[in-house]
Write a structure and sequence with these properties.
Length: 218
């Protein structure tokens, strides 16, 4: 086959069936890259990212953790949507007869509630207390400071134990000051990146740091 359109009669019933099987928290999207700004040609459970047929292949959120890159796609990467929910995603390349990528079948599973439940159980059961004192980003070598910063942000969200979408002002102060103690804001342009993940302004970040430092002194 040399076009995604030729595959629609097969793939559309497939993604609709998979959506029924996995439930409303799992989105399946079919992209046709020849359509550019309106690449989505079929979608099931579009409420997960708020998209529909005719929308473009815009980024569904901010990258939290990279996935595994393979010849046929990218698997099990985690993103944070603009409203603070976490998605576990995979992108499967669709190639034409010559081997050129002409589209993709994407899976986006909302794991926000699962993360909240895991964090609650970790704190409640405390099966491995030592793990709460580790700084995972410090134990890994990163190719660039951007990856280091992203990992530190993910650590801060896990430290707070609440997805950004559900965070109160106090939760965000806790997360921002965790990053400050780790030295995250010594990284160039870190405040701008952190502001996007925490859905706040750069000005608010510095206010939260001051609030956190005032509490430590009191």
């Amino acid at each position: 086959m040399n076009s995604v359109n030729e595959m629609l009669p097969i793939l559309t019933p497939l993604i609709q069936g998979l959506a029924k099987h996995f439930g409303e928290g799992c989105e399946f999207v079919l992209h046709d890259y020849t359509k550019d700004a309106s690449s989505i040609v079929a979608i099931a459970n579009g409420q997960v990212t708020g998209r529909a047929v005719g929308n473009g292949e815009r980024r569904i959120g901010l990258r939290i953790m990279p996935g595994k890159e393979e010849e046929d796609g990218r698997y099990n990467y985690v993103t944070q949507t603009q409203d603070g929910r976490f998605l576990r995603s995979s992108t499967i390349h669709l190639r034409d007869d010559s081997g050129k990528v002409m589209g993709a079948l994407c899976v986006n599973f909302d794991i926000t509630e699962l993360i909240s439940s895991r964090n609650f159980l970790d704190r409640f059961i405390k099966m491995n207390p030592a793990s709460f004192q580790q700084d995972p980003a410090d134990a890994v070598f990163f190719d660039n400071v951007e990856d280091l910063l992203v990992a530190m942000i993910a650590d801060s969200i896990n430290y707070v134990g609440v997805p950004v979408a559900h965070m109160t002002r106090e939760h965000k102060i806790e997360g921002i000051n965790y990053l400050n103690r780790r030295g995250a804001f010594k990284i160039k342009n870190a405040a701008s990146v952190v502001a996007k993940y925490y859905d706040i302004s750069r000005y608010t970040i510095y206010n939260y740091i001051n609030d956190g430092e005032s509490k430590e002194l009191s």
